[in-house]
Design a protein that fits this description.
single chain, about 300 residues, alpha/beta, Rossmann fold, 2 domains, five-stranded parallel beta sheet, four-stranded parallel beta sheet, 9 strands, about 15% strand, globular
Length: about 300
């Protein structure tokens, strides 16, 4: 990895952060939803994709209905027992708007890196992951640590997950990935959110052409762009027959080599960083982006 960048260090620190989330989760039962609560999870950008992954995992674990929305698109007429708002900076305008709209009507929990932020002040309960905060504009460890914490609350084994992340960090990156002219990420169930996040990392860090889809949708049009020099990257178990169909196009079909899909996201982060460096871009300061989106009017 490009060792001189903040984001390189933040990517490398994820196993440690996930182990801290494992310890923290055991103290948060009173702030996270009960299994019988109907929940909405909101965020923007990377935080939205973590919300999507958690919502699917929570329902799959047998908990009550769980929806994920961009913060700007929460249907406020719907009734939820609890709303979880994710914002690394705690300053995101759309998240603040949601918390203001439901205040006094629906209990809210904010997950943020800054306990003194506006979002923290606007929520009924706050979970602060200051140890996972970042200096780089691009989110890596805060987002994955948030999802790790929420997974731990569902009973997932974070210590094994952190071991997988260690393997993801030590894995040699194939030139087929770092030199690809185009990458399409695919997911199924909870990993659809991870696929969207992996694609976002490539766009943010390297200005690369990336796409993302539910895996079963890939053959309904998107496979038309697959060809030699491009990659189709499956996060999780691929649908039957897909690997062979991608191979027939000449594209590289990438799978996780048995890693947990969230650890495989770490590999995608590393590829994004490598592509940024190869293109002479600053991985800490992507063009057109800021650490928080704060709007004057909207």
């Amino acid at each position: 990895m490009h060792s001189g960048s903040h984001v390189a260090g933040e990517i490398a620190s994820q196993p440690t952060c996930w182990r801290q989330a494992h310890d923290l989760a055991r103290t948060l039962a009173d702030r996270l939803p009960r299994a019988d609560e109907r929940v909405a999870v909101v965020g923007c950008g990377t935080s939205l994709f973590m919300a999507m992954a958690y919502a699917t995992l929570r329902e799959s674990a047998g908990a009550a209905e769980t929806d994920a929305f961009p913060a700007s698109e929460l249907p406020t007429a719907r009734r939820y027992d609890r709303i979880i708002a994710i914002s690394r900076s705690g300053a995101t305008t759309e998240v603040l708007d949601v918390l203001g709209q439901v205040r006094g009507r629906t209990p809210t929990v904010a997950i943020t890196a800054d306990e003194s932020s506006d979002v923290a002040g606007a929520a009924d309960e706050v979970i602060t992951l200051g140890f996972a905060d970042e200096q780089a504009v691009v989110q890596t460890r805060f987002a994955t640590t948030t999802l790790a914490l929420l997974r731990a609350a569902l009973g997932h084994d974070l210590l094994t997950l952190a071991d997988d992340a260690e393997r993801a960090l030590s894995r040699n990156l194939d030139p087929a990935l770092t030199e690809a002219t185009q990458i399409t990420f695919l997911g199924r169930g909870w990993t659809v959110g991870l696929a969207h996040e992996a694609a976002l990392k490539l766009r943010e860090s390297a200005g690369a052409w990336t796409e993302s889809y539910p895996a079963m949708e890939y053959r309904h049009g998107p496979i038309s762009i697959a060809q030699r020099g491009r990659v189709t990257w499956m996060l999780g178990e691929p649908p039957s027959g897909l690997a062979g169909q991608v191979a027939a196009t000449g594209a590289w079909f990438e799978t996780g080599d048995g890693l947990d899909p969230m650890a495989e996201l770490v590999v995608a982060q590393r590829v994004a960083l490598a592509q940024a460096v190869n293109r002479g871009l600053d991985p800490d300061q992507p063009r057109n982006l800021s650490r928080a989106v704060v709007l004057d009017s909207h």
